[in-house]
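For reproducibility, we list the full input for the glutathione complex.
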Amino acid sequence: MSEITLYGSPLSLYTGKARSYLIKSRLSYREVLPNSPHFEEAVLPEMGGRRSIPTVETATGEVIRDGSAIIDHYESLNDNLFSPRTAKQNIICKLFDVIGMEGLLRPAMHYRWNFDDFNREFIQFHFESFVPPNLDKQEMAAQRMNQMRDAGRGFGAIPETFPLVESLYCDLLPKLNSHFATHPYLLGNRPCIGDFGLIAPLYGHLGRDPKPLSLMQSQAICLFRWVERMNRPEADLGEFSDQHDSYLDEDKVPDTLVEVLRHVAKDFVPETTAACCAINGWLQEQEDLDPYTPAERGVGMCTFTVEGQSITALAQPYRFFLLKRVQDYYLSLTLPEQADVDSLLNACDMTKIMQLTLNRGIGRLRNREVWL
Ligand SMILES: N[C@@H](CCC(=O)N[C@@H](CS)C(=O)NCC(=O)O)C(=O)O
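The corresponding predicted structure, in tokenized form, follows.
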């Protein structure tokens, strides 16, 4: 085996993160759907009992399930090429990774599943393409689509919350657009791990499904260009005068990004607070949760309020698996660096997320996130 095989799909949210990383790293890979006999026989048994994409088979035949684990693997071989070395930029980079993976699921699911007139045929085509030959494509696709529609509700996108989900997203678009009008990537002229996290919802769903794609193309041209740029190996800096391939000097975090984070904080902070409380409550009730027990995708629901609207959503341990990277990095900083980060997070209305920790750690064992 000489190249990487990426098991994924163009419409998959999480595949977008790993794909973009492989492209930007100029790693040679081929992307295939997870529906071949080889996948079932050789790859699936190595995935720790969870069938999810993205999963890769490395050039040496190792199977890695989970987008963050895939990136960790190649980043460690790559001298952490896509992690800024300075305090504020590194915190912001890691924070955008959490936001991308967990913080935009409501708009991503809403704009896919609640606009049938625009999206239905497009989505159905892709769900049918997952089904191996000789099986009933229509029926199996319909079953899977129903499950995913339900998952969208589970993330809190229900009729009562649609107006809020839409207004938050429609206000986010111009803020992201202003940022990408002046900077090609989040932190300058080079993508960081945060860009790879953020591309997950903004490519497979929000930058590709017909309804949200039309919104992005008509209302946020520079954001759309970033989505394209994230899927190209070259830096693709055409419209910018500065062509250097580097992060901004002097640990600068642009005001445009602070504005984006202040907006994201409106639901990211209350949701993270409520999820933390729900998961810690659940942990307390588990009398015999042995170390290395798999951490399931959700451990119950949590309820929080955003702009007067109550939202109930799945409480997901994975959010805290990634958030801990932000918190651990903060603890590794010097006191003056921590002070700089404190003022930055304060300006972003994100201070609180540094205190939100679970009572049990989460690690990885044999391709699963596990309770430590
Ligand atoms: N934490 C995983 C999540 C992967 C994930 O949930 N992928 C979706 C497709 S976008 C999937 O395979 N869902 C099927 C399932 O979880 O059963 C990652 O970041 O790779």
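Residues 255-285 form the longest helix (31 residues). The chain has a mean pLDDT of 97. Both points were considered when choosing residues for closer inspection.
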